[in-house]
Structure formats: structure tokens, C-alpha cells
Specification:
The complex is a heterodimer of chains A (618) and B (87). Chain A has 618 residues and is an alpha+beta fold. Chain A has 3 domains: 197 residues, 4-Layer Sandwich (Aldehyde Ferredoxin Oxidoreductase,  A, domain 1), CATH 3.60.9.10; 200 residues, Aldehyde Ferredoxin Oxidoreductase Protein, subunit A, domain 2; 161 residues, Orthogonal Bundle (Aldehyde Ferredoxin Oxidoreductase Protein, subunit A, domain 3). Helices cover 39% and strands 13% of the residues of chain A. Chain A is built from 26 helices and 17 strands. In chain A, the strands form 4 sheets. A 6-stranded mixed sheet of chain A has the order 2-1-6-3-4-5. A 6-stranded mixed sheet of chain A has the order 8-7-12-9-10-11, with helices on both faces. In chain A, strands 13-14-15 form a 3-stranded antiparallel sheet, covered by helices on one side. In chain A, a hairpin with a 4-residue loop joins β1 and β2. In chain A, α1 packs across α2. Helices cover 18% and strands 34% of the residues of chain B. The longest helix of chain B has 10 residues. Chain B is globular and about 40 Å long. The chains are: A alpha+beta (618), B alpha+beta (87). At the A-B interface, α9 and α21 of A face α1, β4, β5 and β7 of B.
């Protein structure tokens, strides 16, 4: 059995606690541990920026084993952006290093009196003064902390944005990977925690059945090597250019330009893979992954020429480019770098900037409120200026936008909420629900707000495990549940979603690997694994319900409920109510979108029924 | 009739161009099968049914319209690409 490291920042004490067997059996690891611990210890009434909030960093049974694509770590907490539970995953090498130090999870609680960072070297845990690195950008802070501890250590940090409690501040690793969504960086900032540095020496994770493990990995690798989307090194596949299917995504009706106004984007050719690949100067990967889908880009033209940084993913090319009405790849590389250095979620950052531009262009935000700044579409400089203002909460505009679109709209008033492209307070990703109905209902009902990642509809998007028409609505509720439960359980590993999206990780492979690694008989059954996914999803949802979420929150902003405006999908609508009704039925939830007592008991969540009762929800 | 075709990524290498206008003599409407066959005659060896290949007719995945029987006219835009999905 493993251990959980409990880090109390109020009294600067750390304690390793044994991992409870029932926690492992019911929730496996990663995202499962995350929701269970947050549910038990930082309930729905918790102040997200108060010392009572918990930040859980959890790994899975496969972390550190070298299982392909299982190198990620999962951060969970009550979100200061959405006021409900949040799960945000990060890559790189931090997760494996924490495992090698002998831990399966960390629970970070309390609030330090002064800025600190935590140095973990196997069983030794030290709290160190962080006053000299407070205010530093992420990469510099990592350099200082490594100099003071161990140059080969791995780290997670928060940047100036997190310290300034920007509600969409990211947690950033030493190699600029992020657990970006939902404001984990702000939770760190609220706790006066600059970072966690870790070095482990137990570098071999025991495996119960090596033969089965190797055989399953061989099978997965063979499938991976046959996958035309992942394996080729051409610019249109993951080994070549990672997630950058930006151009085709636009042609397919997504990559919604101009804050989801969906006006034509004349510059779109700049996002062709053949062009993007000319910026690529290197490859980067995560622990235990042969894909190395992270690419290093060097800006070539204009005032940003020479800037070299890990590339913007598709979402970032959209959020900081197409969504703002431009395709200036050089400026996007620079804006992406700024977000990583300040510690900002690029999706929420870009959507919030688009929101501000849209408000200004519609006369809702005045020049007095923008402090003289002209907010224009197709102006990369506007974005770069606003990134700095938000990260540093500079002036009225920076300060208001740092609250995220939902809160900013409430502060601004005057109908601003119609321009805030968010669901449950989380800013939208680059998907248009009107032209992909399963993905649409998935994002609307997501337990964490508008996340594409927790509900990626591989049937519709890449035709895995079988192709399904994105425009059809029949059967989409079932497929949505399938994708949500599958991702939930695969993130207990913690598998990368790219592997799940392409069916290289799924409950069947996972069952074999889990049994091979742990020897736990229950894990042999794929049905058992699926059930854990459903249990996680329902517990996440119940937490949201207790925090005030009902059917009214499973809804898009008004702009997305109007007919789709551009060809070739002109006139398509998102059948929100019809899909929602069917989804609740498939889920075993009532018409308010609350899991029924029967469903919760079926999943072994009897205690949740009692908690819902206490709040008058059942 | 003239059909506008865009090639993206690997298929661009096969065609040697990012975009071309393909002249197909005869009817005002043809099928995607005719387009692929005309491309082959020009030496562009695109296999629209190869796993991973995505053929979009006016932004819609042809396999959800009528596959290779999908109709194409001179207002249509055909995109032939591999699509790996975003992140």
C-alpha cells in the first residue's frame, strides 16, 4: 500500500499517511482520489481561496511504471473560478518524481503565514522561505528553487498570476507543462505556497505480474504504431505536430473565431500544418511516453522573432489567435510564453480577452474603463497587453478581467453576460456544440464546467472506436456517458487524454495493467473499472449539486443557442433541452440534474444520499 | 465542371500542391468517387478510404453524407486531410 503526504501550511508540518484500502478499491487513484478527498475534506461550502480549501495532487497506480501515456498527475480542489469541484491534469516528469519519492498523493491544506515552498526529498519534507522567489515568473522561480535544493529535482509552481489570485491561474511544472484549468494556481497563491520541489530515489515501481504488464504494453504499443493519427512523424499527426490540427478543425466548423461570433477567418491558411511545422525546432515529451507530442516552436517574423518556447496547443492557437481574429503564429508563441511564465490558463485567458474586445466593440465597455486602450479584433498587441494587465491585476480592466468572464460580466453589468462564453464559470474551449452534438451535450453537462477534455467524444471527433455523425442527436446521451465515464476512470491512472481519445487507453487495457501492477483481483474486471468511472462522475456531480448546480447550469450562453451563422453549417442549432433530458435519463438523474438516490446507492455512494438529504436536495 | 480541392499535410505531399481546381468534363454534378478517380488520372494517388484519411465536402465529413457517393458540384470545396484531433 502506498502513502499520502499531508502538507499543512498553517503549522508547517508534513505527515505521511497510509493509503486506505477502500479508497484504492473504490477510486483507484488520480482523479478518483481527488474527488473523494475534496468531497470529504473540502465540502461544497468551502471558500476556494480560504485556508480550508484543499489542493490534492494525486497520482495513479501506473505512475512511474513506464506504462505508455500514464505519466500525468491530477490536481483537484474547489475552484475559485467556478465555485465547484475542479480537476486539472498536468504532464511532464513531476508525477513520476513524486512517486519515486514514495507518495501516491499530496493533500495541501491551511495557509502559510509567509510565502513558502516545500522541498521533498524522499521521506524528508522541509518548508522553506519563499520570499525571494515570490513575485517571480514560473521558470525563474524553478531555477532558484532547484539551485537551493537539487538541480535534478522536479517542481510545480505558481506564477505572479496565482499570487495575485487571478481566478484562472495555472499550476506550472519545471518543464512548462500546466494543470491550467480552474485556478489551481490561485489556490496555491491563497495558501502562500510558491511551489513544491521533489526528488525521489525509489526509481523502480514494483509490478506484481511483469509478464502480463509487458504483454499488455506490447499490445498497446502495436496499436499505437498502427494509428494513422498518432504515430506518423508528418505534420498532420501527433508525433509530427502534436495537437495542432487547427486548420482542419476550423474547416469542420469549430475553432470558433471572434468570441464564438463564428465570422469567417480569412487568415486561416496560416494554421495549415505545413506552415506550423516550419516553426518547429524540437520535440519534448512526458515521462513514459514515446509520442513526445510537445513541440518547441521558434518565432520567425516581426517583433517576436527569436522567441523560442514550447508550442501553443490547438486550444491556445485558437484562444490567443483565431478567437481574437488573428492567425499571427509568432505573436501566439509569445502570448503563450507569457501565459506560462505568469502562470495563466491560456483558454480562459484568451476567452476573457475576446469577451473584453467584444464588449468594447459593442459599446458596453467604455474607453474610460479600458483606461484608453483600444480593444480591437485582429490585434495581437491587444492580447499581449491584456495578458500582463490580468496577470498583475493592473488597473480597473486588468483587475476585473482577472475574475474570469462570469464574475467580470456580473461586475460590468449592462448585459455583459451574453458575451461571456462560459459554462458554470469555466471559459469555453474551441468546440461549437451546434456542429457536434455529443460533444456539445458533454461540455454542457461536464462536472467542472466547459471542459472539452473530460468528455471528449472520440466517436464524433476521430471515429474511435467507431465513427458517428456529429450532427445526429440520436444515441448521443449514451455515447456522452461512455466518454465521460471512460475518461474519469482513465484519469485515475493518470492517463493522458490523447491516449484515451485514440483508444490506446481504455477500461479493457486499463483492467489488465491495473491487475498486472497491483495484483488486486477486483481490478481484473473491465466492468468494475467502468463502474469506478461512473462513481467518480456521479460524486463530482453531487458535489456540484450541493454547491448549487442544477439543470439550469447545464446550459450554454445565448449566443450558442442561436442558429450557426457560417457556411457550411449555417442554420444548425444545438438541441440543448432535448439532449439534456435524454442525458439525465441515461445517467439516472432526476429532471433537476441531480443523481437519484437509487443511482447513488447502486454506485456505493450511500453517504452522498445522506449529504443530499441534509441539504434538502433529495 | 471545376471542383476546388484543398490538400492538407500528408495529402499535400501526395498532390504536390496545397490547392487545385480539378476540371471534370460532363455533368454539372459528380460524385466524390469521380473526383478521386480524376485525381488518380492526374497522378495524385489519394486513397479516400485509407484509415485516418478525412474527406470533407463543404466542411462535412463525407462518410456521414454518402461516402464516395457524396455529390459534388462546382460550388463545393473538398478538403482531403488527416485529422488527429485537438487537445
Amino acid at each position: 500500500m502506498g502513502r499520502i503526504l499531508r502538507i499543512n501550511l498553517t503549522n508547517l508540518k508534513a505527515k505521511a499517511e497510509p493509503l486506505a484500502k477502500n479508497l484504492v478499491l473504490d477510486f483507484i487513484g488520480g482523479r478518483g482520489f481527488g474527488i473523494k478527498i475534496v468531497y470529504d475534506e473540502a465540502g461544497p461550502e468551502t471558500d476556494p481561496l480560504g485556508p480550508e480549501n484543499k489542493l490534492v495532487i494525486a497520482l495513479g497506480p501506473l505512475t512511474g511504471t513506464g506504462a505508455q501515456g500514464a505519466g500525468r498527475w491530477c490536481a483537484t480542489f474547489k475552484s475559485p473560478l467556478t465555485d465547484i469541484y475542479m480537476r486539472s491534469t498536468g504532464g511532464g516528469f513531476f508525477g513520476a518524481e513524486l512517486k519515486f519519492a514514495g507518495y501516491d498523493a499530496m493533500i495541501i491544506e491551511g495557509r502559510a503565514e509567509k510565502p513558502v515552498y516545500v522541498w521533498i526529498s524522499d521521506d524528508e519534507v522541509e518548508f522553506r522561505d519563499a520570499s525571494h522567489v515570490w513575485g517571480m515568473t514560473t521558470r525563474d522561480a524553478v531555477e532558484f528553487m532547484r539551485d537551493e535544493t537539487d538541480r535534478s529535482a522536479r517542481a510545480i509552481v505558481t506564477g505572479p498570476a496565482g499570487e495575485n489570485l487571478v481566478r484562472f491561474a495555472a499550476i506550472v511544472t519545471d518543464d512548462s507543462r500546466t494543470a491550467a484549468r480552474g485556478g489551481g494556481g490561485a489556490v496555491m497563491g491563497s495558501k502562500n505556497l510558491k511551489g513544491i520541489v521533489v526528488k525521489g530515489t525509489r526509481r523502480r515501481v514494483p509490478i506484481f505480474n511483469e509478464d502480463l504488464f509487458r504483454e499488455t504494453e506490447r499490445e498497446r504499443l502495436e496499436k499505437l504504431q498502427k494509428d494513422p493519427h498518432l504515430w506518423p512523424e508528418t505534420p498532420d499527426a501527433f508525433r509530427g505536430l502534436g495537437t495542432n490540427s487547427t486548420y482542419v478543425w476550423y474547416v469542420m466548423g469549430h475553432l470558433p473565431p471572434y468570441n464564438f461570433n463564428q465570422w469567417e477567418l480569412p487568415c486561416i491558411e496560416a494554421f495549415r500544418p505545413e506552415n506550423l511545422v516550419t516553426y518547429r525546432v524540437g520535440h519534448k515529451g512526458c515521462f513514459g511516453c514515446v509520442l513526445r507530442c510537445g513541440k518547441v516552436y521558434k518565432a520567425k517574423y516581426g517583433e517576436y522573432a527569436g522567441v523560442t518556447w514550447e508550442f501553443p496547443e490547438l486550444e491556445t492557437e485558437w484562444a490567443l489567435g483565431a478567437n481574437l481574429g488573428h492567425c499571427n503564429v509568432d505573436a501566439i508563441i509569445y502570448a503563450n510564453m507569457l501565459c506560462d511564465l505568469y502562470g495563466l490558463d491560456t483558454i480562459s485567458t484568451g476567452v476573457t480577452i475576446a469577451f473584453a474586445i467584444d464588449l468594447y466593440q459593442n459599446g458596453i465597455l467604455t474607453k474610460a474603463e479600458t483606461e484608453g486602450l483600444e480593444l480591437r479584433w485582429s490585434s495581437p498587441d491587444t492580447a499581449i497587453d491584456l495578458i500582463k494587465r490580468m496577470a498583475l491585476r493592473k488597473g480597473y480592466l486588468g483587475n476585473v478581467l482577472a475574475e474570469g468572464t462570469r464574475r467580470a460580466a456580473q461586475i460590468i453589468g449592462r448585459g455583459a453576460e451574453h458575451f461571456a462564453m462560459q459554462v458554470k464559470g469555466l471559459e469555453m474551449p474551441a468546440y461549437d456544440p451546434r456542429v457536434m452534438k455529443g460533444q456539445g451535450i458533454g461540455i454542457a453537462t461536464s462536472t467542472i464546467g466547459a471542459s472539452h477534455a473530460v468528455t471528449w467524444n472520440k466517436f464524433e471527433i476521430v471515429g474511435e472506436p467507431q465513427p458517428v455523425d456529429p450532427l445526429a442527436i440520436e444515441g448521443k446521451a449514451e455515447l456522452t456517458k461512455y466518454c465521460q465515464d471512460e475518461m474519469a476512470v482513465c484519469e485515475t491512472a493518470v492517463f493522458c487524454k490523447i491516449f484515451v481519445n485514440h483508444d490506446i487507453a481504455n477500461p479493457w487495457f486499463y483492467a489488465k495493467l491495473l491487475y498486472a501492477t497491483t495484483g488486486e483481483e477486483s481490478f481484473k474486471s473491465p466492468e468494475y473499472i467502468w463502474r469506478v468511472g461512473e462513481r467518480i462522475w456521479n460524486l463530482e456531480r453531487a458535489y456540484g449539486n450541493m454547491a448549487g448546480i442544477t439543470a439550469k447550469d447545464d446550459a450554454y450562453p445565448s449566443r450558442l443557442l442561436r442558429p450557426y451563422p457560417r457556411e457550411p453549417y449555417k442554420g444548425q442549432v444545438f438541441e440543448q433541452e432535448e439532449l439534456k433530458k435524454e442525458y439525465y435519463k441515461v445517467r439516472g438523474w432526476d429532471e433537476r440534474g441531480i443523481p437519484t438516490p437509487e443511482k447513488l446507492r447502486e454506485l456505493g455512494l450511500d453517504y452522498v444520499v445522506e449529504d443530499l438529504k441534509k441539504r434538502g436536495l433529495v | 465542371m471545376l471542383v476546388n480541392i484543398k490538400f492538407v499535410g500528408r495529402t499535400r505531399e501526395l498532390s504536390g500542391t496545397g490547392e487545385l481546381q480539378l476540371h471534370i468534363p460532363g455533368a454539372a454534378k459528380v460524385t466524390l468517387r469521380d473526383v478521386i478517380s480524376a485525381l488518380r488520372e492526374r497522378g495524385v494517388r489519394v486513397d479516400a478510404e485509407e484509415p485516418g484519411v478525412l474527406v470533407l465536402v463543404n466542411g462535412r465529413n463525407a462518410s456521414f453524407i454518402k461516402g464516395l457517393d457524396t455529390e459534388v458540384d462546382d460550388k463545393s470545396e473538398v478538403v482531403i486531410a488527416y485529422f488527429s484531433g485537438g487537445g
